[in-house]
Every structure is written in structure tokens, then in C-alpha cells.
Amino acid sequence: MTNAIDARLEELGLTLPDAPAPAANYVPFVQTGNQVYVSGQLPNGPDGLIKGKLGDDLDAEAGAEAAKHCALALLSQARKAAGGDLSRVRVVKLVGFVNSTADFGDQPKVVNGASDLMVAVLGDKGRHARSAVSAASLPFGVAVEIEGIFELS
Q: 129-135 and 29-32: which strand pairing?
């Protein structure tokens, strides 16, 4: 039986990946009370990790697409924390790190890829506080890394 969130994902043509395993010595998420802190998720597209530097070999649109893949991974982790039921999940905050040149200033446009996806999938429960910052480099040369804080009902 599918719930409304699963139906919305299908309607949007989206499939959540399996919750990614950690790439180093950390856990994918920590739950304390009804809060879930999800470790930074990397953009894994159909051809593997989405790599590049915004303002150099990627534009804001390509970065937003990478951020969308980070958001799908975040939702996978949140779904796992919620026992498989995304209807229990509310997004509290996202923090986006954008691998960009020193003169690139569209970090908010890039991270909008993740924010827009959260709202599209979760509706009002996807609206959140947010930070979007530049980074000189990110692990494995990826374009974006996003972490999240979620609340479970």
C-alpha cells in the first residue's frame, strides 16, 4: 500500500535511492528524541558522482540538478530513520556546501535544487530553514554536499 508521499514521488517521476552507506568513520544519521541529523549527502546521479566546480565547469542549473540528487539521498536517510514512512518526516534545516570558484555567487540558486525538491515531495512539511555556502573543494571533487535536520512525528 502506498502513502501520499510515495504517490507524490511517483507522480514527480522520482525514485529514492537506497540510503547511501557512509564513506568514512561516521554514521549516516543520528536520532535524538524526534530530531534526526543526517550527515552530508553527495550527489550521485545515474552516471555516478556529479563532480565539478560551480563557476568553472558547471553553471548554477547543473549545480541545482546535483543538489536535487543530494536531496533524494537525504530523503532516503530520513525515510530509513522514520521506519520507512516519509509521511512522518518534516524538514527543519538544510545546509548546502557548493564547490565553487571564489567569484561564484549563486550558491542559493544551486541549493534551491534541494529545497525545491523537498517542497515538491513533502509539501509544507518540506519548507525549512537553510544555509548555502561556498567551499573551495568537496570530497571526491563533487559539486555539492548537503546535510539536513529532520523532525519525526
A: unpaired
**51 SS3 class:** strand
Fold for domain 4-20+29-152? 60s Ribosomal Protein L30; Chain: A; (3.30.1330)
Under the banding of pLDDT at 50, 70 and 90, the label for residue 1 is very low
Cell of 136: 573551495
- Whole-number Å distance between alpha carbons of 59 and 68: 14
State how far Cα 148 lies from the chain centre.
7
**Phi/psi at 42 (5° precision):** -95, 155
Domain boundaries, the chain: 4-20+29-152
Stated as kind and residue range, the H or E segment containing 149 is: strand 144-152
Residue with C-alpha cell 557512509?
A: 22
Task: Say what the pTM is.
Answer: 0.96
Q: What 8-state DSSP symbol labels residue 59?
A: -
* Helix (H/G/I), strand (E/B), else coil: 25: coil
Q: What are phi and psi of 104, to 5 degrees?
A: -75, 130
Q: What is the pLDDT of residue 2?
A: 59
Grid coordinates representing 153 are 512525528
